[in-house]
Write a structure and sequence with these properties.
The chain is built from three helices and ten strands; from the N terminus they run βββββββββαααβ. It has 192 residues and is an alpha+beta fold. Strand 4 and strand 5 form a beta hairpin.
Length: 192
């Protein structure tokens, strides 16, 4: 017979729609003559019921633990002469955020986009390069407040909760359900 793999309120990835959602209802499908439901569907608030095979649990992304040393390098602007882009912060080059030890791999921007708003792209490159440090700071805040939450000021608690939620969004990846959860179903089938 069917067993519930998810519980009410649980965060799931809905693969067919491509969105994160929460289980609003666990819906057992009963058949006459059976003591347990024959199928279980889940209402996630998207207009139809989903089977467990269409849903995935968030799982910790292993790549989120070792980010390395991200840095901004300058690449030569091959599509414009330095004289044509004198309005750029660094004429003749554009930023490349390198996320690998070998000075390749990471984030680059198309030339037309950089030319449209070079100041914004320069800021984005610095922000992306600082992301591992900001992530470490958020982890430290969550750990620091978590050691004694009853002694932390309300503002620190609020910031730690916000940092924890952001870290979860960053670190959560999709994964298959681990094991069937205890079903939140009525003990007896509904009367027919």
């Amino acid at each position: 017979m069917a067993r519930a793999q998810f519980q009410k309120g649980q965060k799931v990835w809905v693969e067919s729609v491509g969105v994160w959602s929460q289980i609003e209802k666990v819906l057992p499908v009963w058949a006459k003559g059976f003591d347990e439901p024959v199928r279980i569907t889940y209402d996630v608030g998207l207009g139809r019921d989903f089977l467990a095979t269409e849903l995935q649990l968030p799982a910790e992304d292993a790549a989120a633990t070792e980010l390395g040393d991200w840095r901004v390098l300058r690449a030569r602007n091959k599509w414009q002469d330095p004289a044509d882009c004198a309005h750029h912060p660094f004429p003749g080059s554009y930023p490349v955020v390198v996320t690998d030890r070998a000075d390749w791999g990471g984030w680059r921007v198309p030339g037309a986009e950089y030319d449209r708003d070079p100041t914004r792209i320069e800021f984005q490159s610095r922000l992306i390069a600082a992301s591992p440090d900001l992530m470490a700071l958020a982890r430290e805040l969550v750990e620091s407040v978590g050691e004694s939450p009853e002694d932390a000021p309300p503002e620190s608690l609020r910031l730690a909760r916000r940092a924890r939620d952001i870290l979860r969004r960053v670190a959560d990846a999709m994964g298959a359900p681990a094991a069937p959860a205890s079903p939140e179903l009525p003990a007896t089938p509904p009367a027919s």
